[in-house]
From TrEMBL, chains A, B:
Gene, per the UniProt record: cofD
Gene Ontology MF terms: transferase activity
Name of the featured protein: 2-phospho-L-lactate transferase
Pfam families hit by this protein: CofD
Entries under InterPro entries matching the protein: CofD, CofD-like_dom_sf, FbiA/CofD
HAMAP family in UniProt: CofD
Keyword field: Magnesium, Transferase
PANTHER family referenced in this protein's UniProt entry, alphabetically: 2-PHOSPHO-L-LACTATE TRANSFERASE (PTHR43007)
Length: 316, 316
């Protein structure tokens, strides 16, 4: 069985861990969001790719969902002593090493996809992790505060401001000119089906879909998504702030419709959203809280089952 | 009183601490060696500048003489887990922050002299520390081992090989085309005298003197040096291996002669070398072991006294 999953950070990574457990023999290709990537201290940081890599590789800080377990913050403290910021982005010492290796390889001329593969040589995530693109795509958020109306990097809005200032709009800058990273389209073409984990529909899945070629390639496949919204609220994170920014209601139905007609075939919603109906989409309610490894794996299994069911229905 | 001192790493830094204590009111400009600088993990490392900065700024690891006190090595350990080396250069987490700040500033277009000034804003070394040049000068060592005859970076010979393979020659690559960093020549011109701390005469003082313009500028001044050789052996480090490489005997006399006629005016040697005579140089024996702060300060005071004595003799 060959599966392609698009993924953002924490929610996506946890779902993928369940997916790997549910289908240990499957060949899983993860197309990771890079719109959140940011250069800090001259180093290239890829928060979503790293969260997937650390989570599946056993190095994640389980409580916070991102960053490394047993992390220390000596470098950050020292940078602070030099008066060098930003201080709002919590890079730990172990994490710094990842960014140092990545930056050194990028400066040597390797593409992000090759760098990610090299980093995964250590982490052995059990999936093939490919960035959505080797080109620079950066999610910017237009906000308006006492400094006036201005565009800030997604991380500044998300991490520094904790999305407390309303986003007027969100744009994946550079997406239109980007091309999928090597292997992405081939993996989709070879896949039995495509899954959308409960990642942020705007700044994770939405950004990946904004890379020309990816949406068309996956549209030809059976696609099953897992709703990141339960009973009108995000399972985690601040997806509601992103949805509001683009004028979409925070509901399992609205997210399915956001992905657009002809894309989703199946949609797993929580039992709390059992009444959701989406034209042309097979909506199935079940418990969606990824509270532990077993329940997460069961959710992934339900997504696989629905995808296989819809796929064989399409074929017959 | 205005003093210029040329300096390498550990020996120079310790002497400078004594100098600052002996002449707290003096305006001290330190011209630092950058021939040992190396790029590691994509970061620019300046071992001698940092040793001076950390030593005078109270951040040095006193026992080893280089690196930071209370240092941790998480980043290095993680880089090792990625299989990324070299592992023979011991960069600690606190030290990494310095190199991250430096590299970021260099990449932003600042010159090394401006970067060094910015780093010193934090360390407040009590001296003005200027790199000998903003240009890239790199000390290379020609060695011959089972891999044949080849040139290696000074640090590879010094740190990785611990100078265990004889050096056939030593060259400051790029020195001929380099120019003194802004402020170096002016500081020398304004100085009452120039001091050579007991730094390595070949790869520290010698490299600084190889920057065109510096030797000529200081030659017009009263210069007093402190011998790094006591009784035919280096006080610390492996200066003998460097001297042998350039065909110079390891003795207090030979080092004074190496600096060339017309450069040194005074030469402090250890009591063990009381019989040393150097034509045209006023040689004064005294205890030269920098065993603690007080003895180091007394050595610096002796150098100041000799410089002032020789200067007033020249003037009269």
């Amino acid at each position: 069985m060959k599966i392609v999953a698009l993924a953002g950070g924490i929610g996506g990574a946890r779902f993928l861990r369940g997916l790997r457990a549910a289908a240990p023999e499957a060949e899983i290709t993860v197309v990771g969001n890079t719109g959140d990537d940011i250069s800090l201290f001259g180093l290239r940081v890829c928060p979503d790719l790293d969260t997937v890599m650390y989570t599946l590789g056993g190095g994640i800080n389980e409580e916070q969902g991102w960053g490394r377990v047993d992390e220390t913050f000596v470098v950050k403290e020292e940078l602070g002593a030099y008066g060098v910021g930003p201080t709002w982005f919590g890079l730990g010492d172990r994490d710094f090493a990842t960014h140092i290796v990545r930056t050194q390889m990028l400066e040597a001329g390797y593409k992000l996809s090759a760098v990610t593969e090299a980093l995964c040589d250590r982490w052995k995530p059990g999936v093939r992790l490919i960035p959505m693109t080797d080109d620079q795509v950066e999610t910017h958020v237009v906000i308006e505060d006492e400094q006036g109306r201005r565009a800030v990097h997604f991380q500044e809005w998300w991490v520094r401001l904790r999305a407390s200032v309303p986003a007027l709009s969100i744009a994946a800058v550079g997406a239109e000119e980007s091309t999928p990273a090597p292997g992405v389209i081939k993996a989709v073409e070879d896949a039995d089906f495509v899954l959308f984990p409960p990642s942020n529909p705007v700044v994770s899945i939405g950004t990946i879909l904004a890379v020309p070629g990816i949406r068309d390639a996956i549209a030809a496949k059976t696609i099953v998504g897992v709703s990141p919204i339960i009973g009108g609220a995000p399972v985690r994170g601040m997806a509601d702030a992103c949805l509001t920014a683009i004028g979409v209601e925070t509901s399992a139905r609205a997210v399915a419709e956001l992905y657009g007609p002809g894309l989703l075939d199946g949609w797993l919603v929580d039992d709390a959203d059992a009444d959701v109906r989406v034209p042309g989409v097979d909506v199935r309610p079940r418990p969606l809280l990824m509270s532990d490894a077993d329940t997460t794996s069961a959710i992934a299994q339900a997504a696989i089952d629905l995808a296989l069911e819809l796929r064989s229905a399409e074929e017959s």
